[in-house]
C-alpha cells in the first residue's frame, strides 16, 4: 500500500510538471542555514539528511551514486513552520499547510475518528503528504459547544485513558469543565504522560490550571476570562490595566507554561462582529479559493456577523501583552483557528499570525522562534518519545524550509518557499505550486 501511494504521488507530480524526491539520503548544498538554536546564520554550507533526520551540517562525506542533491544556490534553509492550533481534518487542508511551509500541526479538537486514526498515522509514517500531526481530545462540562462532556473526576480520569488509547497526544480542556472533572483529568494526565492544554475553565481559573500542570494556554484572550479582573459592568469589553501584564507573565513563567499567540485570530474575529460585509470580503480574498464548500458555507453563516461588538481596545491590548511576553521570555507558539473561523485559511493564516506578531513589535527572531523552535520545545516537553524538531541541527527531524532571503531580515520570504521538506519527503517549488493548483481546481466556486 505504501509503495502504491508513493508511485501515485510521483506520477501525479510528474504530470503536473513538478518533481518529488524521496530517498534515504538528501543533500542540501550551498545553503545559508538559520538553525534557530540561537540568533545566528551558518553561511554557505552543506546539510545532509538521512532517513528523515538531519545527519550533519558542514560535514563532507562521500555520497552514494544517485544521491538526491538540492543545490541551494545561496538560498536560506530554516526549520519548517508549526501551526499549533488549528482544526484541519482534510487532506486538502493538509496540502495547504504543507504548501505554505507548515511541517507540524496540532489539531486542537473535534478531529474525526478517521483523521485522528488513519490520516494522522498515514501522514506521520510518510505515506500521505502533510505536516506531522499531533491531536488534542477536547472535553467540556456542558454540551452547548458540541464537545465531549465529562462531569466527574472519575469521568475525567477515564477520558484521559481513552484518549491516550486512541493516539491523542493532548487533552484540551474547555470553558465549562467542572473543577472536579478538571482535577481528575489533570491528575490522570500526569500518570499517563499526556499533556493538558486548552482554555480557561471558568470553575477553575488559569492560575489553578497551570499549577495543576496545564502545559499550554490555547489563546492569549483566555487571560481576559481566567486571570485578569472582570471589566466593569457598564463597559464589558474594556481591556485590562496594562499594569497587570507583569502578573500574568509571572504566573506563566512560574509554571513553565506555553502560550499560543493568536493575534491574527482574535483580530479577525473582532473585525467581523456585526459586519456581514467583512465576512463577504474574507470569502472574496484570493486565498479563499482553496476553501472547502463546507467551510465557505460555515463562514457565510458565522454568528459573529450577527451582533455588533467593539473589541478594538482588547485587540490593541493583546498586541501589547504578546510583545511584553516575548520580551520577558515567555514561550510563545503560533496558532489560530483555521479553517473554522471566517478569515482563516489553513497555511495562509499562519503567515498572517507571523505578520501580526511583527506588527505588535516582536522582532523577526521572536516571531520565527514562536513558529519553529518553541513549538519543538513544547512537544519535547509534553509528548514523550517525540522526535525532536524546530531546529536545524544533527539529530532533529528534517522539517525544513528553503527560502530566497534571510527570514531574520525579510520575514515575508517565508510566504514563497523554494521548497519544503517534512521528514523524508522533499517538495520543490514546482511541486508546491502544483499542489495548490490541484486543491483550487477541486474547490472551484460556481
UniProtKB/TrEMBL annotation:
Gene3D superfamilies: Amidohydrolase, Urease, subunit C, domain 1. Keywords: Signal. Residues 1-23 form the signal peptide. SUPFAM superfamilies: Composite domain of metallo-dependent hydrolases (SSF51338), Metallo-dependent hydrolases (SSF51556). It comes from the Bacteria. Pfam families: Amidohydro_1. GO terms for molecular function: hydrolase activity, acting on carbon-nitrogen (but not peptide) bonds. Residues 77-414 form the Amidohydrolase-related domain. This is Amidohydrolase-related domain-containing protein.
